[in-house]
Amino acid sequence: MRTNGLPAVLLTAACATATTAVAVGAGATLGAPSAHAADPGGRAFDIADPRITESSGLAASRQHPGVYWTHNDSDDGPYVYAVDSQGRTVATVTLRGVEPRDVEAISLGPDGRLYVGDLGDNLGGKWPEVWIYAFAEPAELHDQAVEVTRYKVRYEDGPRDAEALMVHPVTGRAYIASKKQGGGGLYQGPEKLSPTGVNTFRRIADAPWTTDGAFSPDGTRLVLRGYFSATLYRWKDGMPGDPSPLSVPFQRQGESVTFTPDGRALLYGTEGKDSPVWRAPLDDAQLPDTVEPLRSATPAPSAEPDSSSPAASGAAAPSASGGGQGAPAGTGDKVLGVAFLGAIAVAVFGLRRKKRES
């Protein structure tokens, strides 16, 4: 996404989330061991390819374990990149006959095809239509050109900006989350996309400020992320359930998210050169329905509280919402980053005030 007006958005978000971020960071240092103590998360890898400077989407490969598909935002060309768990590009796929406008998302469907969302609209929702490109995930990883199917997309309630495309891993239905300050919408595509007609997406729910989204491998969870936050939903009967906030690592411009193939963790990506991808394990209460919780390192509570229990010792109890104990590795970076942005905000406003007074 182009960052027209982004500094103001970042400063507003920083100020609005600073208190929460600090609280999350403090909780992460005080609590007892969580259920995912065996998987502390952290920095998974850095995308090392000098061509990938605006990674704006992530999708875990189904055919190639440890490989993730990504793409640049705009001004790059019709390219999709396969990146391994060391951050190395192992294949570049060229989409034949495509002249992308603003590619923002990528998702893998149950039919084994990758769906690429050319959804961005930096004019604030002026394009009469946007597009989705689909192609079969390559069986072999090497540089190649592929044929694609192009789907025309329009929204029932008119043009809008969007950066998140999610294809349900069971039904194959496509969903788009629009991006709007103050909240957008979650849009549902037709049961089956048509390559010849116009595919109208209809709003089915509200959505927070969203820069990317992903379904869990079993389709029972949906995550939507923004620059400074993420929200997890239980997915049932084609609708998102009650939202549960997640902690996210502080990133320069967080624009991508995907589940790991086992459904136990999320990977968060960002734009920028040598951009880091962070792994954040989910708490037991957040795991998809088909994923068994890990055995906790914390003993089961007894009928009588004792001096070693978190409650008796005054330590913070694990949080099911993703804050506190659920905060992934990198929360400390988030706290420092938000504090840094807050300092920038103070400096900017102070400078403006000084100029007015002079």
Keywords:
single chain, 358 residues, alpha+beta, 8-stranded mixed β-sheet, globular, disordered N terminus, disordered C terminus
Describe this structure in words.
The protein contains three helices and 21 strands. The chain has 358 residues and is of the alpha+beta class. α1 (6-30) crosses α3.
Series of H and E elements:
HEEEEEEEEEEEEEEEEEEEEEHH
Q: Within the largest sheet, what's the order of strands?
A: 6-7-8-10-14-13-12-11
Radius of gyration: 21 Å
Count helical runs: 3
Termini separation: 37 Å
What's the total number of strands? 21
Uncertain runs are: 2-36, 297-358
Largest sheet: 8 strands, mixed
Can you tell me the overall shape? globular
Helix content: 10-25%
> What fraction strand?
25-35%
Gist?
By secondary structure, the protein is of the alpha+beta class. It is built from three helices and 21 strands.
Topology:
Elements: H1 6-30, E1 42-46, E2 59-60, E3 68-70, E4 79-83, E5 89-95, E6 105-108, E7 113-118, E8 130-136, E9 144-146, E10 149-155, E11 162-167, E12 174-178, E13 184-188, E14 198-207, E15 212-215, E16 221-225, E17 230-236, E18 239-246, E19 254-259, E20 265-270, E21 276-281, H2 310-313, H3 331-357
Parallel strand pairs: 5-9, 10-14
Antiparallel strand pairs: 1-21, 2-3, 3-4, 4-5, 6-7, 7-8, 8-10, 11-12, 12-13, 13-14, 15-16, 16-17, 17-18, 19-20, 20-21
Helix pairs in contact: 1-3
